[in-house]
Amino acid sequence: MSGHLKLWTGIGLYILVSGAACGETRRDPPIGSAGGDPPVLSMASTNPECRPIPAEGGGEGGEEGGGSLGSGSTRPAVVLAPEQQFQDRQILVDFADQVVIPAYEQLAADTQALSQAIQAFVKDPNPRTLEAARQAWSVARITWEESEAFAFGPAASLGLDANLDEWPLNEVEVLEVLKSGDPLAPEIVADLESGQKGFHAVAFLLFGVDNNKSLEDFTERDREYLAAVSSVLADTAKNCSKAGQRGWKDYLPFAKDG
Q1: Do the beta carbons of residue 135 and residue 166 sit within 8 Å?
Q2: Tens of pLDDT along 142-192?
Q3: Is the dihedral of CA 241, 245, 249, 254 positive or negative?
Q4: What's the pLDDT score for residue 65?
Q5: Which of 190, 187, 209 minimizes the C-alpha distance to 198?
Q6: CB of 66 within 8 A of CB of 161?
Q7: Using omega within 30 degrees of 0 as the cis cutoff, is the peptide bond preceding 127 cis?
Q8: How far apart are CA 159 and CA 67, in angstroms?
Q9: Pairing of strands 5-10, 12-17
């Protein structure tokens, strides 16, 4: 078992570090902040007894109270104490470079493709463009679900998870947006509550409650909301990818080695 890193998720996130990472004292400096910059989330813990350690931010956005830093929430980023930070730098760097960053790059690409497919449907509603939009949602959704294997990264700790995947969906809140008559430009939808945007809001508008929404059921308002909310979803996924590689807002890159 030496050198293996086991991860599992459920309600919350638990991490077990085995082999070389357990019971050893390492002299490498912990991954953290540089100078006065905000600290960076480390991915696991040096745990002498090799017991699971709970970490904030796992699961669906709504299950752990994950608000959004981009929509008025004041919830801080999740940062482990130095003694809880995993110390094998090469494992962290490889994990970030070979798993996390490529996954979020794919998520950004797939949600952008979803947004483009929805824009095409909105411009020309017909069975072909509707089916293409629905297929694009399924592709992007699979990519997101795969990325939740490491939901302790930027998606969770920066509050982006909720804007991508708030669950359960409050259908009443989505219907309120449809009935409000308020403008639905992307910049306005971006400031809505997390339960009024993200994958599940797009699915509600695109498929209907029982996956039986017909082409004739789509109102002009439905299409307007879909166009805006899919654009916001794509932008959120892009920010998640940026947070891993180049940093986002005032936060250092999550993959920063140092």
Answers
A1: no
A2: 999 998 887 666 776 677 888 999 988 889 999 999 999 899 999 999 999
A3: positive
A4: 39
A5: 190
A6: yes
A7: no
A8: 5
A9: antiparallel
Find where tokens 């490498």 sit.
28
Containing 17, the helix (H) or strand (E) segment is strand 12-17
**Is 84 in contact with 53 (CB distance < 8 Å)?**
yes
Q: Where is 54: in which H helix or E strand?
A: strand 53-55
d(CA 18, CA 22): 5
Q: Please spell the DSSP secondary structure of 116-170, one letter per residue.
A: HHHHHHHHS-SHHHHHHHHHHHHHHHHHHHHHGGGTTSHHHHTSHHHHHH-SS--
In order of their start, the domains of the chain are 96-245 (1.20.1420.20)
Say how far apart CA 41 and CA 169 lie, in whole Å: 28
Could you read off the pLDDT of 197-236 as tens digits, one per residue?
A: 999 999 999 999 999 999 999 999 999 999 999 999 999 9
What pTM, to 2 d.p., does this model score?
0.65
- Tokens 């004292």, residue? 25
Terminal alpha carbon distance of the chain: 28
How would residue 41 be classed by pLDDT, with cut points 50, 70 and 90? very low
Phi, psi of 116 (to 5 degrees): -65, -40
Q: How far is CA 216 from CA 127, 220, 230, in A?
A: 10, 11, 20
Burial (0-12, 13-18, 19+ Cβ within 10 Å), 244: buried
Do 160 and 243 form a contact (C-beta atoms < 8 A)?
yes
